[in-house]
Specification:
Length: about 140
């Protein structure tokens, strides 16, 4: 009888650990979706300074955005932001999204479409997903 109780306790412990791992994975993916939603909203509404807060702090430090660059982003209006493809590796902590952005130059009213790939990485220390590709290049070398 004692052995049966021990086996039942072990089975219950294994079941609970499975649920907690599953719950953690789910909350991790929910946070990814939340961060991606906030990012796409910031880009759609032209809030590039707000979007910077979702970029990995180490990336921001290595690739600072100047005031002149931010002024350049003010010269465009985003007309579309469409996800074309996405993938996520929960265990590896990496997610990718291929994005198509519609851009209108406010001065010339010229419209163009820009493709952009987002790369998101999970940071265990922060318990947060960070974008590690920076702001989209809306000029493509122009």
């Amino acid at each position: 009888m004692r052995r049966l109780t021990q086996l039942a306790a072990l089975a219950l412990l294994a079941l609970l650990s499975t649920f907690s791992v599953s719950a953690l994975a789910k909350s991790k993916m929910e946070q990814l979706q939340s961060n991606q939603y906030a990012w796409s909203g910031a880009i759609r509404w032209g809030d590039f300074e707000g979007a910077l807060s979702l970029i990995d702090p180490a990336y921001r430090e290595a690739h600072p955005v100047s005031d002149l660059e931010l002024k350049r982003y003010e010269q465009v209006q985003i007309t579309a932001y469409r996800e074309r493809n996405s993938s996520a590796d929960k265990k590896g902590g990496v997610a990718m999204r291929d994005i198509e952005i519609g851009v209108v130059n406010r001065h010339t009213q010229a419209e163009r479409t820009v493709r952009y790939r987002e790369e998101w990485r999970w940071n265990d220390a922060d318990k947060n997903w960070w974008l590690v590709t920076g702001l989209p290049d809306l000029w493509g070398g122009e």
